[in-house]
Amino acid sequence: MCHDMIEVEKMGKPAVPIVSGRFEDDALASSRTFGMPDLQFVIVPRIYRNLADDLCVSQTEDAIDDLIASLTSDGTQAAQSDNDESTLRFEGEDRYDAVLKMNREFTVRDWSDALPILPPTREAVEKLIEGTNLDANDIVCDMPPGFGIATVEQIAINSAMAGAKPEHMPIIIAAVKCLSVTGGHGGKSMLMSTSPQAPMLVVNGPIAKKVGLNGGSALGPGRENEINITIGRAFYLCLKNIGMWYPHKMDMDTIGTTRKFVPCLAENEDASPWASYASDRGFSDDRSAVSIFTTNGELDVQDQGNTSAEGLLKTLAYGITFGNRSVGHLQSQERLIFMPPDVALPVAAEGWSKEDAKNFIFEHAYGSLGKFIQFMPAKDARVEEEWQWIRGKTEQELLDTTIPLLASPDKIDIVVVGADRAKTLVFPTGPSPETIGIDQYLP
Amino acid sequence: MHLLEVSNPVAQQRGMINIFKPNPRPSSLDGKTIGLIWSGTHGGDLALNRAGEMIQERFSNVSVNFYTGGNYPTPPAVVKQAAKECDLVIGATAD
């Protein structure tokens, strides 16, 4: 709403958003992001969304004097910059002590993930910049959600903190660029959501093997995932310090999720019976690409004995049928399936293509409309035109109505990942993923 | 002693390059048209309508227009309409 009010101000009219207390830092950060750091706003203590009607009214009444004051008097706030130092200096008894002090300061400023980081020295940053054909000052994009200017140098600084190597830089740069074209305004609304939406990076093509990305048991901690973790972490630090994805400012998550330690992995192309995910998106096998999915949870869908294509895919179809089904203007309504070879291979062996599998899963993923939409009362203004007929139905009628989980088979993405077990990992996702070529950033 | 020099990881924000200042406020809301923009989320409409009522109680000849695009961000056409038709605008997202 700060964005909308700033748009009104830019059209020449005073505008004031009413902001819930927990969102004060978000309002300040958004005001900076959209170019009006002195935007006036009014604070109320509680979030309206989950308040009873009488409390919505009473807390507004309590704030009316502040609201009128902000409409009738010019504000006195002044834009302040708290980040003018291009170089930071830390003195220690020795280098180790100085690095510890740097780590403490970066954690206090919330510039890291609170795990130890490596120092982004001039030498380390310059070495990483050699890993791409771009120059230090080249601008890759304005990175959401805060639209910091993602120069190659700034990406390298954050990548150095994560311990990235020069050969990782083309992947990291492509991922930063990819985020900026994902969803509306670069997925800004998703990233700033009060739900745990988080990016997931999937790499396809020759570069994955070249740098050592894992496509087997690819999401856990440990030695075999060193490169996965390093590249994901570099991307996360870029998202934080370039995209301004700071908790309680532009990341308004209610509880949070470990998926915000951004996962990165390769598709297990060697074990897949089908064309790669990037190939589905128009990239030939000799080209490398990174895709970004915005995940909103995860679930293990295990199979304990089915061996036929139909049996395995029914397990998947029933397994992915959980959670909500949006009937309003919400984007989180897709499924990403990390399908292990022990599911993909027997399915393909019976002659099923990836499209066949997606169609079958879609056709068998049905559930109760009443259960799907319980989270959003039918009177909600965001219910779309095509669904407004639900307002005339009883609760029981809605519970007895079955509908597809997803709008169409293309809301399902299949990526072959994993070791030799029939344990599929499923993620609710949205907005739709994007894919960017990596080779354009090779040195 | 060891001096460690490192680069600042925080980028410059595009929005802070060309800063806009808020518009001057009127001294009174008498005779003004107030726009209320609702994101569509539960409770925000109640807040805005009550705020509009209270402003009408405290000032004379105040008109109130209610707008919603059913979601946030509000569709640009709705924002533009509110800015065109009203003297001042209040918004609420409900969170």
UniProtKB/TrEMBL annotation, chain B:
<feature type="domain" description="UGSC-like">
    <location>
        <begin position="8"/>
        <end position="95"/>
    </location>
</feature>
<dbReference type="InterPro" id="IPR057767">
    <property type="entry name" value="UGSC-like_dom"/>
</dbReference>
<protein>
    <recommendedName>
        <fullName>UGSC-like domain-containing protein</fullName>
    </recommendedName>
</protein>
<dbReference type="Pfam" id="PF24696">
    <property type="entry name" value="UGSC"/>
</dbReference>
